[in-house]
Amino acid sequence: LKKHGIIVIEDDNPWQDITMGRLTTIYKIKSASRKMTVKHKIKIHKDNNLMDISSVYEIYIKNKKLPIKADKKPVTLRIFSRNELELLLTMAGFKNINTFGNFSGKKFSDKNYKKLIITASRM
Predict the structure, then answer these.
(1) Cα(87)–Cα(75) distance, integer angstroms
(2) CA distance readout (Å), 83 to 44, 73, 79, 112
(3) Are 60 and 66 in contact (CB under 8 A)?
(4) Which of 23, 52, 58, 112 could staple 43 via S-S, CB 3.0–4.6 A?
(5) Are the beta carbons of 102 and 37 closer than 8 angstroms?
(6) Would you give the DSSP letter of residue 107?
(7) What phi, psi does 86 have (nearest 5°)?
(8) Digit-coded pLDDT (tens) for 2-28
(9) What residues contact 91, with CB distance under 8 A and at least 6 apart?
């Protein structure tokens, strides 16, 4: 990143849902002729902050249901908390670290947590 450049990190934030025991998420995507439902089942590895996500996809084209697709194996991701990301950015020399809960600039909070957006600058 160039001097005085700004980094923007955007990610879904699963922590609050996970701590409340919500380990299944469903997303619905719709257009004029297609719709898709994606169901994620999450398995948490508490000893190392990894999570396995298994996904199932239901797709409809012009109201005709296609065969259900599922991931052949789960995708494993490392979960970073807001505090971890802020610490890593600080250690990398970033300043002016700000966290937001959406792209409208609302501060990250218990009520505004689905997205985690972090901005920081390189001095």
Answers:
(1) 26
(2) 19, 30, 12, 16
(3) yes
(4) 52
(5) no
(6) B
(7) -60, -40
(8) 888 899 988 776 666 777 777 887 888
(9) none
